[in-house]
Amino acid sequence: MTKKKSHRSESHPLRGSRLLLLDSPGNIHSIDCRDRILTGFYFDVFATIGAISGTGSVAILDFGAGSAAKSILELYPDVVVHGWEIDGDVIDVGREFFELSRIEREYEGRVFVHVGDALRAGAGRVEGGFSGDCVTWEKVKGMLRDGGRVMVNVGGSCVEAEESGIDGKRLMEETLRAVSKAFGDEIYVLRLGNGKDDSSIAFTGNLPDPDAWKEALYPPLGGYVHMWKPFKGYLFVLFKLLDSGRLSQGRNRK
What we know:
Blueprint: E1 2-5, E2 18-21, E3 28-32, H1 43-47, E4 57-61, H2 67-75, E5 80-85, H3 88-97, H4 100-106, E6 111-115, E7 130-133, H5 138-143, E8 144-155, H6 168-183, E9 187-192, E10 199-204, H7 210-216, E11 229-230, H8 231-244
Parallel strand pairs: 4-5, 4-7, 5-6, 7-8
Antiparallel strand pairs: 1-2, 2-3, 8-10, 9-10, 9-11
């Protein structure tokens, strides 16, 4: 785990932000943009789940330093967030360097941070179950209330796999198949970026009415609503690109 402050050009979206990186393989785990609610990265897509959670609880597994929680708490005053992080050192870093202590104070009673394995700790004991869940499968499905959903970063070219010989694209494909096995056909995928910088988010359940969803969102997030594609169609395009070798050339032909 490595904490870094970004010293990029004035126009770069990460300028002045703090990053929490995984030592191996070095992927971005959390971002703190200080003076902005949104990060400009996939964490912002997670914030859209708050608009369809109503007064329910949202669970964030692999909580990190609280990047997704910060946006959800600030934008949706009726949502309660339960976060689980297996590494207590990550929470300590979040509290010291990523404003997590401030968030816990400011939103006391609406954010609960737990250290440990959520799937072993009985995360589903929250009364009524969770209306939204930002990460993992069979057991997670049982944690959801009726109508609850999962939103998860499934990776992509920008992600470096922890196991040698498995690239980000292949990891994404395997994760999508695992999610599909648990949740069936009601899965949608949103792709961010192009070529070597792309990543994807999966979302379970039927999509909400797009106009109503967009209306309930913080305006800068509205553009994500129409980017979701059915999982089956997404994989068809992916496999066609793999067969043609276009993905290996780093082009987005979708």
